[in-house]
Specification:
Layout lengths: L18 E6 L8 E10 L7 E3 L10 H9 L5 H13 L17 H9 L5 E2 L4 E4 L3 E8 L3 E3 L2 E5 L10 E4 L2 E3 L4 E3 L14 E3 L1
Parallel strand pairs: 1-9
Antiparallel strand pairs: 1-5, 2-3, 2-4, 2-6, 6-8, 7-10, 11-12
Helix pairs in contact: 1-2, 1-3
Length: 198
């Protein structure tokens, strides 16, 4: 698995080549589609070597940058990227975004859910062809399923070439639940019964 840690500092002057991000479908879901967007890109002018794709030099940040600053309680964009690196490398069930495991109730899950509608680039045949290192947000689509946002990190190898990445999609089938709005009362034939559907 690719690690987004100290390896994020890399030589920017070396020519890089293309790399693929391969998406594995969830079990029993063969006809899913995916969209994606890059959220972090190389920045040779930054001490940390990275920036959000819509990061600004002014106080008015783009929506992606601002979502991570606010959601991670960061002081600025660089601090948000440092916190994002820590979360990406976290192996707990709440934050293993590379394997499609993001706890929806976490702050991190809230951030990804808030920006996932911006991931509009279509994925062809479950493969994303990239020409730049960075962090990519991937969103699954199939009616009747709830999808967990995924992150893929494309790293630079020692020779400057890009390293392929793999992610495993996670989805759960939507279920309709009906709860009768009664408090233990008897119901006779012909009575109107109200219920809540979730």
């Amino acid at each position: 698995a690719a690690i987004l840690a100290a390896t994020m500092i890399m030589g920017m002057s070396v020519t890089t080549f293309a790399a693929d991000i391969t998406i594995t479908n969830p079990e029993d879901v063969n006809d899913a589609t995916y969209t994606y967007m890059q959220i972090v890109e190389p920045d040779p002018s930054s001490p940390i070597g990275w920036k959000f794709v819509d990061e600004s030099d002014t106080d008015t940040q783009g929506p992606i940058t601002q979502a991570f600053i606010d959601g991670l309680n960061a002081t600025d964009a660089d601090d948000a990227i440092e916190k994002l690196k820590d979360i990406y490398n976290e192996s707990s069930a709440n934050y293993n975004a590379e394997q499609g495991v993001v706890n929806a109730s976490s702050d991190f899950g809230d951030i990804l859910n808030s920006i996932q509608n911006r991931a509009n680039e279509p994925v062809i045949a479950n493969t994303i062809e990239t020409s730049e290192a960075g962090l990519y947000l991937i969103v699954g689509h199939k009616t009747g399923y709830t999808w967990i946002p995924m992150l893929a990190y494309v790293d630079n190898d020692d020779d400057g070439s890009l390293v392929n990445a793999e992610v495993t999609a996670k989805a759960s089938k939507d279920q309709v639940k009906k709860v009768v709005d009664q408090t233990g009362q008897s119901v006779m034939e012909g009575d109107k019964v109200t219920y809540t559907v979730t």
